[in-house]
């Protein structure tokens, strides 16, 4: 079987071209430290990397939401702590009001202090969060509570705040509505009231003079209100602990994902350098052989 000059030439140039392309690819893998430069390099690995990158982007968004939730929960805890302090002060005033030695003027002074506490708690209820939104706002409304001209406090909007997504099919309600925190206080008549109305009635009774029944009702109501706020604060703490666990889980998942990505995508530099050196040696030998072969005078006459 005869091999023509053109066949020898084509085979040699084709081999040298392939070796050159391989050397260029290896050099790029070394310089970029990435071994999958295109889907054709590793179709399965490329698809895996695409999935890993999508998961990483999703988890980055979830991590941001967890951080937001943690901030809101911390702010809620601090604010509810202040509400507890105000209610404890109101309890002290109720105890003082129960004294039979107080004059009507003394009771009016206490009434002023109770109304000051109401004002302070309205301010706490309308606390703005880091986003500029009402911390204890309902699902609707631009504030948590509003105060009418006669001093009556009412809740704004309805429903609980929207939950924040922190994972696939996983979310958390970072804050509670003012109605849940300050409302729903049972009354002796079987109904419910809210902390603002209860304290308002207490202040009214103090201004009207001695009223042991109203004082006793306020004392009992404040006890229930404080327990409710404390329970809400405990719930906030539990959700905060859950966010800490979720944040750590995402961190662990991210570490595992990075190990997987590195195994698929990152170049094994020492091994690749050895492969490059091997390829360059073969290329040099092929070029030398081709040069010698093409320089033979007989080569020009082969057909």
Describe the structure.
- With 303 residues, the chain is mainly α.
- 68% of the residues lie in helices and 6% in strands.
- The chain is built from 7 helices and 6 strands; from the N terminus they run αααββββαββααα.
- The protein has helices spanning 5-32, 43-97, 104-125, 178-182, 195-208, 212-265, 269-295, and strands at 145-147, 153-155, 164-167, 170-172, 185-186, 192-193.
- A two-stranded antiparallel sheet has the order 1-2. A two-stranded antiparallel sheet has the order 3-4. A two-stranded antiparallel sheet has the order 5-6.
- A hairpin with a 5-residue loop joins β1 (145-147) and β2.
- α1 (5-32) runs antiparallel to α7, α2 (43-97) packs antiparallel against α3 (104-125) and α2 packs antiparallel against α6 (212-265).
- The termini are close together.
Which structural class best describes the helix and strand composition?
mainly alpha
Shape: rod-shaped
Give start-end ranges of low-pLDDT stretches. Answer: none
Sketch the topology as an H/E string, one letter per element. HHHEEEEHEEHHH
Question: How many strand units?
Answer: 6
**Percentage of residues assigned to helices:** 55-70%
Average pLDDT figure: 86
Taking all Cα atoms into account, the compactness measure Rg is: 38 Å
Q: Beta-sheet strand percentage? A: 5-15%
User: Order of strands across the biggest sheet?
Assistant: 1-2
Total helical elements: 7
Distance between the termini: 12 Å
The largest sheet, given as strand count, sense and whether it forms a barrel, is: 2 strands, antiparallel
């Amino acid at each position: 079987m005869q091999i023509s000059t053109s066949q020898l030439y084509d085979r040699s140039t084709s081999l040298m071209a392939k070796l050159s392309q391989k050397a260029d690819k290896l050099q790029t893998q070394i310089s970029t430290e990435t071994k999958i430069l295109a889907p054709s390099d590793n179709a399965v690995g490329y698809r895996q990397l695409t999935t890993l990158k999508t998961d990483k982007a999703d988890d980055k968004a979830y991590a941001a939401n967890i951080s937001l939730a943690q901030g809101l929960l911390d702010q809620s805890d601090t604010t509810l702590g202040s509400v507890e302090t105000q209610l404890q002060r109101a309890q002290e005033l109720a105890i003082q009001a129960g004294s039979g030695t107080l004059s009507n003027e003394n009771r009016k002074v206490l009434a002023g202090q109770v109304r000051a506490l109401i004002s302070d708690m309205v301010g706490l209820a309308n606390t703005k969060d880091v986003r500029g939104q009402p911390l204890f706002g309902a699902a609707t409304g631009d504030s948590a509570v509003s105060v009418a001209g006669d001093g009556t406090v009412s809740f704004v909007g309805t429903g609980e705040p929207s939950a924040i997504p922190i994972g696939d099919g996983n979310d958390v309600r970072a804050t509670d509505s003012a109605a849940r925190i300050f409302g729903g206080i049972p009354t002796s008549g079987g109904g419910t009231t809210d902390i603002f109305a209860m304290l308002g009635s207490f202040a009214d009774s103090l201004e009207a003079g001695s009223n042991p029944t109203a004082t006793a009702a306020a004392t009992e109501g404040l006890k229930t209100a404080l327990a409710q706020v404390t329970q809400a604060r405990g719930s906030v703490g539990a959700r905060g602990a859950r966010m800490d666990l979720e944040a750590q889980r995402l961190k662990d998942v991210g570490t595992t994902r990075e190990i997987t990505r590195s195994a698929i995508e990152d170049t094994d530099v020492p091994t690749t350098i050895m492969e490059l050196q091997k390829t360059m040696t073969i290329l040099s030998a092929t070029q030398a052989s081709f040069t010698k072969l093409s320089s033979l005078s007989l080569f020009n006459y082969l057909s």
